[in-house]
Amino acid sequence: VGCHLSSFRALDASTVRLLQPLWDMIKAREGLLQSPFFPVLFSGTTYVAFCLPFIVLDFVSYRVPALRKYKIHPHFYPSAGQVLLCLLHTVYQHVVFIFPVTVLRWHWGPQTWPAAAPGLWELLYHVTVCLLLFDAEYFVWHVLHHKVPWLYQTFHKVHHKNTSPFALATQYLSVWELSSLGFFDCLNPTLLGCHPLTTMTFNIVNIWLSVEDHCGYDFPWSTHRLVPYGWYGGVSHHDLHHRKINCNYAPYFTHWDKLLGTLSLGYSAGNPPTPAPWN
User: Fold this and answer.
1) 146-157, pLDDT tens digit by residue?
2) Residue ranges per domain, the chain?
3) Which residue of 51, 55, 58, 122 has the smallest Cβ count within 10 Å?
4) For residue 184, what are the contacts with CB-CB under 8 A and spacing of at least 6?
5) What range(s) does the Fatty acid hydroxylase domain occupy (predicted)?
6) Is 152 helix (H, G, I), strand (E, B) or coil?
7) Cα radius of gyration (the chain)
8) Is residue 272 within 8 Å of residue 72, measured between CB atoms?
């Protein structure tokens, strides 16, 4: 890792200033960033902001047949009650569980904010490695919580309450699962010694990919259609996991499921399965 980082830092020598204006703008609000409220506000507002377009799409596509061809489940639309339940569940967990943890972390000492921005290549490298590590960690966690009945019934079953996912169901999780994901999310940037801007970028990308996995829409520009060679599973891949339960355990990439024989090819918009209701 050290040798690779040295190479990337050498490439960054000419591009480090590219991110400097952005980092200076963020760092100017250091008082807010150091607040114990910031992590909750940042993750919560980012999550809801990414979910909102799909909530609007669910409302619009119900009335616009041309949009239904992009829905994996063209006859399933979450009710207002389902949307509100998931939203309240997310707010409750952020306030009751995530916020106390951020207060404890804030109490241990403020994070250092370097004056220099990370290099562009360093940021891209670290975000990619963080995503690969997160994918591997959650794959192991996910397999265990499906193969061990007590773990599934006690901690993971709540996330499978719906077999036809929608955006706001992404964080419809037990406290233990949310805590585990939060731990992996914080662990990897810490292990790699990521710059704070890199950590923020990784968190944003991670939230987006998780929402996209559950959004129920398979667009021509969806991530799995942009990544070549079938390396990335995407929404159809994860939607099939919610249908079959015993396949496609990795959240994003496909290599772990391929290696362990748990990969199942997904369906796409225009070739949907039989729709299933909220159970």
Assistant:
1) 999 999 999 999
2) 2-260
3) 55
4) 133, 134, 137, 138, 141
5) 128-262
6) helix
7) 20
8) yes
